[in-house]
Amino acid sequence: MPVIKTAYDLREELQHKRILIELSKHVGIPFRGSEESGEIGSWKRSLPVLANTLCAARLGHVQVLLEYKLPYSPKRVDAILCGVHPETGKPSYVLVELKQWEKAKATGAGLVLTPYGKKQPDLHPAEQVRRYCRQLLDFVPAFARIPGQVKGIAYMHNAVRGADWSLDEFEFDDFGQLYTSDLQADLVADLWSLLDTDPATAGAAMAAAHELISAPPSPARNLLKTAADAFDDRDDFVLLDEQQVAYKTVLDAVAEADSGGGKKKVVVVNGGPGSGKSAIAVTLLAALARQKRKALHATGSKAFTETLRLKVSGGDVRSGEIFKYFNEFRRAPADALDVLICDEAHRVRGMPRHLHGRVRSQIDELIDVAKVPLFLLDEHQVVRPTEIGTKTDIVSIAEMKGCQVIEISLDGQYRCGGSAKFDEWVVRLLGLGAEPPVTWSELVDDTEDEYVVDSVGSPHELESWLLRQARHFSGTARMAAGFCWEWRDPVEVEGSLRLLEDVQIGGWRRPWNAKQGFDVPGVPSASLWASEPDGFGQVGCIYTAQGFEYDWAGAIFGDDLVIRDGEWRARRDFSFDKSVKAADPADFDRLVRNTYKVLMTRGMQGLCVYSTDDETNAFLREYAR
Q1: In this predicted model, what pLDDT tens digit does every residue of 573-600 receive, in sequence order?
Q2: How does DSSP classify residue 169?
Q3: Average pLDDT, the chain
Q4: What is the pLDDT of residues 168-188, one digit of tens each?
Q5: Distance from CA of residue 303 to its chain's centroid?
Q6: Strand partners, 123
Q7: CA–CA separation, 509 vs 458, rounded Å?
Q8: Alpha-carbon distance 204 to 199, whole Å?
Q9: What percent of the chain is helix, strand and coil (3-state, nearest 5)?
Q10: Could you tell me the CA-to-CA distances from 263 to 247, 267, 396 in Å, in that order?
Q11: 91 forms bridges with which residues in the sheet?
Q12: Where is 335: in which H helix or E strand?
């Protein structure tokens, strides 16, 4: 249950620890009464300002909803003021983002820099609260029909506008306004225009708050229409054979769910890299959006999700909200969606959580939220110990919940030049199947397979190979490596961030791709490393390469997986991946091999391999010929 108080009660309870204990329990953090940093410190400094402002403005009867979690999002709104509109007499809601910043400087489209420890920009406070308003309207249909009920304000209560103030270089609107301490009178006037000051409206304010709390979340119709418009040109995938079977199976299951008969159907689609899983996902998403179905797409990868938001929805912010993360459905009501498309489902996390008194896994949560859950996975792409997205896990949990499971296998290969032989070669090379390694030339002898497989003797040659292939045969090229080098934060040089050359092999030195959250000039973000032209020259890792494809792939084997006496040996002492290093020995071996399988199967036209270990590189050169 959200924490909700009148402004009067909030002011009184802030004199004691009780409200802070209640808030800590609500957001799931340990309470330390002496803490002055983090969220508890923020509440201590900001909530009294809000409560005193409201009481002084004769709005003490207004309901204040604290730390409201937005639907299908990990984000929380600092406060939502719930009251009655003074003109219409209808419920009125003001989303409030509280900022303790004394200073901030505008640095571009909707971004600001602050001197409070962060090296990367923050979102402009008005833009932040504007997006919170949009999320609320997009996923609470009851409010989407009457958007005028919702307003958004950011309050920098420690800041004073001075000669160097630049945050007004922004396009403000009803969803995004900004106030500072010297504009408190303007803030109060704005609140008076939105919330009735008559104490007799206290009962209606409480009713408005409970209407918001009890409103069932799901994609609103106007969001679905926006998505459908954005996806209008997403018919460029022609689904073949088992791909079309999977597509039709989901649509038929949705139609059957409408009739209310039979068990819930859970569709599990298993296929290797390039078998068309994401093509199925995007085609389904477009079709369901056009039908105004309540459908969302979810993954466990920030890079994959952000790229889909940019590439599939054309950068449209609202339709991009169709793309979510697996961990955003923890408190979603049952069957709130018609379809949930779980792409890259091998990345589903396995850490159980206590919800409503029961121990639940992430698989439980994803099954419960939709009438028809769809899981698209490749078991050989599980690369972290906490990932449990295997077919066995999903099927067993679905059956325990009384669901009917429909399994579909994708046998084709639509990446890697359409070469099924290449996927077989990689599986055999890494010892992931029953068959022994085989040379590439022998495997494709007397076939028309045109996929290119090569190996080199140094990282210099690998980089040159990629540049040559991209220049002469066109396409994109990327090099990726096992996580065998430290990955440091970028450093500031002459006022600008610069990547450090962490990947060092002899005299060859290159940086990893940019870390999430760092804006480095001339370098794409981590999420766009695989798709933006400037990604070449940085070395990608498993977490930025997984889920993506490029024409020419260079895979660098580090010392965490080497050949000794003809057998693969996984060596945790050479890994810098903290989560994988913590795995059991057998799991570590499997996860490292899966990592290199992912890195080797990103290329659509060809692959070049190289190992930092001499014996291993000799093995690769033998079988890549």
Answers
A1: 999 998 888 888 888 998 899 899 999 9
A2: S
A3: 85
A4: 988 888 899 999 999 999 999
A5: 7
A6: 111
A7: 12
A8: 10
A9: 40, 25, 40
A10: 19, 12, 15
A11: 84
A12: none
Question: Which CA distances in Å does 402 have to 253, 264, 367, 405?
Answer: 16, 8, 11, 9
Give the amino acid at 602: R
Q: Positive or negative, the Cα torsion across 396, 398, 404, 409?
A: negative
Predicted TM-score (pTM) of the model is: 0.58
CA–CA distance, 273 with 382 (Å, rounded to integer): 12
Summarised one tens digit per residue, pLDDT across range 40-96 is 888 999 999 999 999 999 999 999 999 998 887 768 899 999 999 999 899 999 999
pLDDT at 616 over 70: yes
Pair type for strands 539-540 and 508-510? unpaired
Strand spans (E) along 499-573: 503-505, 508-510, 539-540, 550-557, 561-564, 567-570
Which residues, 6+ apart, have CB-to-CB distance to 258 below 8 Å?
Answer: none
CA dihedral (250, 255, 260, 262) positive or negative: negative
Degrees, nearest 5: CA angle 480-484-489: 80
What are the φ/ψ torsions at residue 208 (nearest 5 degrees)? -65, -40
Cα dist from 511 to 50, 486, 519, 589, whole Å: 46, 10, 15, 26
Residue whose C-alpha is closest to residue 72's, from 369, 356, 350:
369
Helix axes of 391-400 and 362-369: crossing angle, nearest 10 degrees: 60
Confidence of residue 353 (pLDDT cuts 50, 70, 90): very low
Report which secondary-structure segment, H or E, holds 403: none
Contacts of 495 (CB under 8 A, 6+ apart): none
Instruction: Please report, for residues 364, 377, 593, the alpha-carbon distance to residue 387 in angstroms, rounded to integers and kept in the order given.
Output: 14, 12, 15
Query: How far apart are the C-alpha atoms of 535 and 524, rounded to whole Å?
Result: 6
Average pLDDT on 110-130 reads 80
Most confident by average pLDDT, 67-76, 201-210, 237-246: 201-210
Count other C-beta atoms under 10 Å from residue 86's C-beta. 15
Inter-helix orientation angle 277-290/242-259, to 10°: 40
Q: Of 326, 320, 411, 406, which Cα lies nearest the Cα of 360? A: 326
356-372: per-residue pLDDT in tens? 334 468 888 999 999 99
Partner residues linked to 268 by β-bridges: 375, 407
Nearest C-alpha neighbor of 609 from the set 308, 601, 215, 143: 601
Strand partners, 376: 269
Decide if 615 contacts 290 (C-beta within 8 A). Answer: no
DSSP class per residue in 125-156? HHHHHHHHHHHHHHH-HHHHT-GGGEEEEEEE
Query: How many whole angstroms separate alpha carbon 378 and alpha carbon 343?
Result: 10
Cα torsion angle, 274, 277, 283, 286, sign: negative
Both structure tokens of 175: 């969803």
d(CA 597, CA 290): 37
CA distance to 396, 402, 502, 544, per residue, from 348 (Å): 15, 20, 30, 17
Q: Give me 427's structure tokens.
A: 């599986």
What integer pLDDT is reported at residue 385 of this predicted model? 67
Count of residues in the chain: 625
